[in-house]
Amino acid sequence: MNFLVDAHLPRRLCQMLQSAGHDAVHTLDLPHGNRTTDAEINQRSVQEQRVVITKDADFVESLIIQHVPYKLLLIATGNIRNSELEQLLAAHLNSIVAGFGTSDFIEIDPTTLQFH
């Protein structure tokens, strides 16, 4: 699966996803880096069929109203350590990937996955 990790999240998530066999890029890897606009992220997501991983709820609105990005994983954990976030995603990665087979939007918090 292809992922695009937003600026508010650590670049290490890309490495974790790549280690699990996925294609992942961080906004830091894009031409405008962390200044990449939400519109540019949405466009790249659709063009490359990338799941946007973000903490930014603005992407939920754009998904509902404009049907972009391609697919969305919203991190709803509040402030946690990067290592805890990586562990949380790693523990649920298979379910997340399977869930995107039927869902366009998944929300993860410390205790649940919600498929929308």
Notable characteristics:
6 strands, 4 helices, alpha/beta, 116 residues, 6-stranded mixed beta sheet
Share in β-strands: 15-25%
**Backbone shape:** globular
* Count of distinct strands: 6
User: What's the average pLDDT?
Assistant: 96
Count of individual helical segments:
4
Low-confidence stretches: none
Overall structural domain count:
1
Task: Provide structural commentary.
By secondary structure, the protein is an alpha/beta fold. It has one domain. The protein is 40% helix and 22% strand. It is built from four helices and six strands. The protein has a six-stranded mixed beta sheet, with helices on both faces. Strand 4, helix 4 and strand 5 form a beta-alpha-beta unit. The radius of gyration is 13 Å and the shape is globular. The protein starts with a strand and ends with a strand. The mean pLDDT is 96.
